[in-house]
Specification:
This is RpiR family transcriptional regulator. The chain is of the alpha/beta class. It has 2 domains: 77 residues, Arc Repressor Mutant, subunit A (Orthogonal Bundle), CATH 1.10.10; 170 residues, 3-Layer(aba) Sandwich (Rossmann fold). It contains 13 helices and 5 strands. Helix 10 links the parallel strand 3 and strand 4.
């Protein structure tokens, strides 16, 4: 989780003077380096002590350490600036054609960013976990879990059992899994260790379950606990946005890569099984377009 996202998370949790500091930081993020700590306290109607407490709440020793990390993140975001704003790709004045173009850019850039962030060694470890698992369970919340459902659908077409852990049953399911199983844990923030599904990571690890984490970049709880983590495109804010355009596209891309790498390990067998079953189960389907028809 990046700093901007951590600040948003802090503002959701704390509604004291630290909220006012966070609001000022987000509003003035491009120019924050120009302000002294005294000016920030003055303009946010707080105090110097509150500004320091704000930084410490985020895990820094003080304001100077926070600013060093914040400036570094701003430079990174500037160097990797997207053509479209992932949080607000359009506004009230945007035309239909502008919206079409903006959403296209957001999704393409999200896929490119996700591909750049994929660690091949980590991906191979994740595929190994899937191959050796007798049972695969996906843990996550809406809307991420719906994208996990598409992955589940693909996997069962090649005879690999995958299930979705439902809300209210995650605790029971996590207790039933063993070292022969694999869990896929999805959390964009990757930081709320006391809420579902993150709170079940200790149980899964205690049961020696192989766990694949999918989360945003930066430091978070998931990365500290798991040895196999795949990184989603991380430019989207937690709350201040129109929708999850970028993260949904990123997550779907990661799942498609996971499925494809798994498929490729036993390409001939998987392809034969899928084709044979498709002909039987989908024999009633027919195509209008010539390009869609099988020979």
């Amino acid at each position: 989780m990046f700093l901007l996202q951590k600040i948003e998370e802090l503002m959701m949790e704390y509604h004291d003077a630290r909220y006012a500091v966070g609001e000022f930081v987000l509003h003035e993020q491009s120019n924050l380096h120009k302000y002294t700590i005294n000016q920030i306290a003055e303009y946010s109607y707080t105090s110097k002590a509150t500004v320091v407490r704000f930084a410490k709440t985020l895990g820094f020793d003080g304001w100077k350490e926070f600013m060093k990390a914040f400036i570094s993140e701003m430079k990174y975001l500037e160097q990797h600036k997207a053509d479209a704003d992932v949080n607000y790709p359009f506004d009230a004045k945007s035309s239909v054609n502008e919206i079409i173009d903006s959403i296209k850019k957001v999704q393409i850039e999200s896929i490119q960013d996700s591909a750049d962030l994929l660690d091949v060694e980590m991906l191979e470890k994740a595929v190994h976990y899937l191959i050796k698992a007798k049972h695969i369970i996906i843990f996550g919340l809406s809307p991420n879990i719906f994208i996990g459902e598409l992955f589940r659908r693909k996997m069962i077409t090649i005879k690999k059992q995958v299930d979705i852990a439902k809300l209210g049953e995650m605790g029971i399911i996590s207790n039933t899994l063993t070292e022969d199983d694999c869990a896929i844990m999805i959390s964009y923030s990757g930081n709320n260790e006391h809420a579902e599904p993150m709170c079940y990571i200790p149980t899964l690890l205690e049961n020696k379950v192989s766990v694949i984490g999918i989360t945003s970049g930066g430091d978070n709880y998931m990365r500290k606990e798991l040895d196999c983590v795949l990184t989603m495109s991380s430019k989207e804010r937690l709350y201040t946005k129109i929708s999850n355009f970028a993260t949904e596209e990123s997550l779907q891309y990661i799942f498609n890569v996971l499925f494809s790498c798994y498929f490729a390990k036993h390409y001939q067998d998987n392809n034969l099984y899928k084709l044979q079953n498709s002909k039987i189960l989908e024999s009633s389907r027919w195509a209008v377009l010539k390009s869609m028809k099988d020979e």
